[in-house]
Predict the 3D structure of the following.
Amino acid sequence: MRAIPTSPFARRWQRIAAAPRRTPRAWSARAWVGSLVELLVLAGGGGAVRAAEVAPSLAPQTFAYGTDPLQALDFWRSQGVSGGAPLIVFVHGGGWQAGDKRGSARSGQRAHFQANGYAFASLNYRLVSAVDVETQAVDVAMALKYLRDQAPPLGVDPRRIVLMGHSAGAHLAALVGTDGRYLEKAGVQVGDLAGIVLLDGAGYDVAAQLEDAGPRLKRLYRAAFGTDVSRQRALSPTAHAAVPNAPAFLILHVERPDSARQSRALGAALRAAGTRVEVHGLPGRGLAGHLEINVELGDPDYAGTAIVDRWLGTLWR
């Protein structure tokens, strides 16, 4: 496997990994989760990529899809397609508590998809603890509604919109794509989406995720999902996998045991309901692999790029 590029998250991860083991008193749960969220912010921001690998692009247009400052998205037009372009809508990660849409401008994904005829949007959403996860899913749905409504002037085909998310953003994308109430509240149907791409997500089955998590990560998940089992189930995409769903799902995970289990279980539930789904494992271990998938996707040498490109091509046949 190729080495991870020298990027902010990689340097931070290397420092954490190389640091002397701390005592429980010195390395508190709050400090550990704080470092994890910091890494996830960088993951949600896409990290830095080698400048030579990113094609030049015009600055994005920024649009408000709501009244809160975080209800905003950045939009890049397709390169080479004057009208009716397919659109990738990206939802950043960050442990439901952090992250920012601007990071996608530094990742390889946006440039890759633009160069291949796609328009690209990266959205912000309000964050825990200012709002709850249910509200975050509403924000994602509202952003999709806005982009569908504005599709003609943006040069986008509203029938070819794909929602993609990483980490916590993958959970939100999966939730919106399986529990139709969020899109319906915004005036959209799950069938209006062409497909969903999930990049090493978490929390597809919240209760199972909490069982897998160690005491430190439990703190992160409980901050997002609380302790009410019925609420945890309501926020679990796997529990909503019975139809109707978005028409097609591509679920990617790296070599993290919990991510692999969650991804396979969601895939199995969707398949049992008759929804078209593919699940693929990619190289990369632990948190480093979790971050790598977000940075490296779009690099032609990264295995996930060819998988995503091929799958997207099947949507338009």
The longest strand covers residues 156-166.
